[in-house]
Design a protein that fits this description.
With 444 residues, this protein is of the alpha/beta class. It folds into four domains: 120 residues, Rossmann fold, CATH 3.40.50.720; 62 residues, Regulator of K+ conductance, C-terminal domain (Alpha-Beta Plaits, 2-Layer Sandwich), CATH 3.30.70; 124 residues, Rossmann fold, CATH 3.40.50.720; 83 residues, Regulator of K+ conductance, C-terminal domain (Alpha-Beta Plaits, 2-Layer Sandwich). The strands form four sheets. The chain has a six-stranded parallel beta sheet with strand order 3-2-1-4-5-6, sandwiched between helices. It has a six-stranded parallel beta sheet with strand order 13-12-11-14-15-16, sandwiched between helices. Helix 1 runs parallel beside helix 14 and helix 7 packs across helix 14. The mean pLDDT is 87.
Length: 444
């Protein structure tokens, strides 16, 4: 595929490296010739000097024939304009990286739709979602990218309160589905009359905010809230607090700048904001941070995050997470006691790779290797079962539609719901059902 990367900064370079390694033809545009020379010496890419927001520059660089135009300069407005111009010139897919939540959240205006851009990527949001995923469940199945993280999958062991009950008797809340059961090493799709047995590991799929209720039904009781400490009131912290708001977490955010701390306190309900440095020994002792379940370093300084996490781990914190910009640090942190390290820059690259892989049909995750898989399917216009209620459709054996994304709406379907052309589906089914999915949904 011909791909144009606009911006030769760190993210642009890392994206270009990954795309070249994947066999794509990459052209990089930047205003700084020295950056382009350095990149051309390292990678097999074409380079183009100029402003990527100008139609003549994009056109001469080949935007009209490009499979993707990726705008990742250091200015949100330039990225939005570049992606819009690239789309107008004929690029098949356009992606803009933005940092501002006002652009990404489209609270008052959907910039993506207004400008005709296919995808917006926010590094802070992607990083927060990655952290939230393993905080919720270290064994979570990696399909969080489906429908902008609105649908999740998690696994848990069934408790005594669920043993002996059928799926119909469990009465899970609408929007939450028990998609699979692993029993004595075998994973299968359950039916309404399937009975939960002791030792079963169940896979839940559903809207993010419903998992606390689902865990209570299946595992019994309310789990002890996890005590989470965040160092730094950064945008990542805001996204992360929102992502964890409906789960079992007690969150404290330490922000040293008083004005920022006051602003966070007014925006984040249910979160304790403390205007202090958690690495101050007196603060650490007074707040009993050594008893915390998780300490997360969210400052903009890699070294400070790393040292603070290592120090917190040494003082008794059970688990530490460091956000680091420099990807070459990621593989050096486990020996010094840091349990997880996340790079916003790499999060952007992974999002780009996912978008390139998200064609008509792809295997998104494995529930049980060699047994059940999770697929993403795009419904084609010629789909024969489109607009028919699911209860009237004879699906392939060992297959269940776990979620439907219809435009901006994402939901776990009921028997009366329909699939429509252009919808994206999350399907759980047996390994090797790709040809059947292709035929059934006319995937395109």
């Amino acid at each position: 595929m011909n791909i144009i990367c606009c911006g030769a900064g760190t993210v642009g370079v890392q994206a270009a490296e990954a795309l070249v390694a994947a066999g794509h033809n990459v052209t990089v545009i930047d205003l700084k010739e020295e950056r382009l020379r350095a990149l051309g010496d390292r990678l097999d890419v074409k380079t183009f000097h100029g402003s990527c927001a100008h139609a003549d520059v994009l056109g001469e660089a080949g935007a009209g024939r490009a499979g993707m135009v990726l705008a990742s300069t250091n200015a949100d407005e330039v990225n939005l304009l570049t992606a819009a111009v690239g789309k107008a010139l004929g690029a098949k897919m356009t992606v803009a990286r933005v940092h501002g939540s006002g652009f990404f959240e489209h609270r008052n205006l959907d910039y993506r739709r207004l400008l005709g851009i296919d995808h917006l990527i926010c590094p802070e949001y992607s990083t927060a979602m990655a952290i939230a995923s393993f905080l919720r469940n270290p064994g979570a199945i990696c399909v969080e990218s489906f429908a902008d993280n609105k649908i999740h999958m998690q696994q848990l062991e069934a408790g005594a309160c669920a043993v002996g009950a059928t799926l119909a008797e469990l009465s899970l809340p609408p929007g939450l589905r028990l998609a699979a059961i692993t029993r004595r090493g075998r994973t299968f799709l359950p039916k309404a009359e399937t009975t939960i047995e002791s030792g079963d590991v169940v896979t839940l799929v559903g809207n993010t905010g419903l998992f606390a209720a689902g865990r209570k039904r299946l595992a019994g009781g309310a789990p002890r809230p996890q005590n989470v400490v965040m160092m730094g009131g950064s945008p990542i912290a805001v996204w992360l607090c929102r992502a964890l708001a409906e789960d079992d977490f007690e969150i404290r955010v330490f922000e040293q700048v008083r004005e920022r701390a006051e602003k966070l306190a007014s925006r984040l309900d249910g979160v304790t904001i403390i205007n202090a440095d958690p690495t101050d020994p007196a603060v650490f002792k007074e707040e009993r941070l050594g008893a915390a379940d998780v300490f997360i370093g969210l400052l903009g300084d890699d070294e400070h995050n790393i040292l603070a996490c290592a120090w917190a781990k040494n003082r008794g914190v059970r688990q530490t997470v460091a956000v680091v910009q420099r990807a070459n640090y990621l593989y050096l942190l486990e020996p010094i006691g840091i349990d997880h390290a996340v790079s916003p820059r790499l999060a952007v690259v992974r999002e780009i790779e996912r978008l390139l892989a998200a064609g008509a049909l792809r295997r998104a995750a494995a529930l049980a290797e060699g047994s059940l898989d999770v697929y993403e399917v795009r419904v084609g216009a010629a789909c024969a079962i489109a607009d028919k209620p699911l209860k009237e459709i004879q699906l392939v054996p060992d297959m269940v539609i776990a979620a439907i994304q219809h435009g901006a709406e994402t939901f776990v379907p009921g028997a009366g719901d329909c699939v429509r052309g252009g919808d994206r589906l999350l399907v759980v089914g047996a390994r090797g059902i790709e040809p059947a999915l292709q035929r059934l949904f006319a995937a395109e």
